[in-house]
Amino acid sequence: METNYGRCLRLQAAVIFWFALCPIQLAAQQTSSIHALSIKPTAGIDMANAGGNDRNFLFGLHVSYDRDLSASSQPWVALLNAKGLSFGILWHNMHHMKEIVDGQTYTHGTAMGMLSEVDFQLLQAGSAKLLFTPGIGLTYITETIDTQPATTTVGSHLNLTLTAELGLEIPVSDRTSLSAAANILHYSNGGLKIPNGGINTVNGTIGIKTALGHVQQTASAGRSDFRPIVGGSGELVVGAGRRGKYRTDGGFWRTGIYGGYNYYLNQAFGFKAGVDLVYYHQVFDGNFETTFQYYGSSYDRVRLGASAGAEVGLGRFAINGMFGKYLHYRSFHNIQWYWTSALRYYLTPNIALQSTLYMHRVQADYLNWAVVFRI
Questions:
Q1: Do 286 and 166 share a structural domain?
Q2: Which residues of the chain have pLDDT under 70?
Q3: Is 193 in the same domain as 129?
Q4: Gene3D superfamilies in the record, alphabetically (predicted)?
């Protein structure tokens, strides 16, 4: 029997085939451009759902403006083999993403958001390119624990969007390329409002990219005067954040401090190691109704851990990830390990703003909004 998911895949293929036929003949007579438009229909399945014809799935569309970085003079572009930067609109129909509570079926509605991505070339065979494309953005989801109080998956309307894609891009003319890719998509509010199980899907896309205008690539494209610190440096991160309280608009405030040492091999990549301290403004005292904080439940005001990881620099922006072991944490759940991911923006080489997501296993603990000082 034909499934809705199968029909979505065939519709996706038909749309791309139609778009691909239109521009190819004219495009072959024109030159390329630094600007482009991409259209990518998407279909995906829920990572948390068992197999079968009734498996949770979504479908949607990603439309983006793409800028070619291959001629950029910024050092990180050459060091990381970055080929493109994109800003787009992401739409997903999630009416087939279901949560069943006490025999009642609830769907997750519609998701609409903005997504920014960077293409990094891994391999090239002839004119075909294999690309790794991480993305980050914000998305509005229509159905939440407020509109459907029995559910636990989507805690708030506004959610962080994270994607990681592996794709193949094949030119079919001077100005048009076709693509096929697989990606992982994550929607979550970072623990700002609870419960918040989050949405995780594996998706497939086929798409078309066509050049816009005739602005040529130049060696000065994307020039920047910013120069990050290379070599060894000390670092202090001071910030605060809030984890939501269960099914209320309240929250638990925490202060987060990190001190450590960095060693950047070049302007694009470095290693990090240091100590994380989190101060609880409200500890867990056994009262589950008012003080329970899931894996972040602590009997003491302070938890302390040592972590190590790496940072990737993209000019003034940087992304880092670290994995740590607690040195002191009186945890209700006996949690021993943690990990963090962070997005950073450098105001100067010595001062930056950073958002750090603390994680226990696959559960978001809280977002720490901080100021970074590098010495």
A1: no
A2: 1-32, 49-53, 217-223
A3: yes
A4: 2.40.160.20
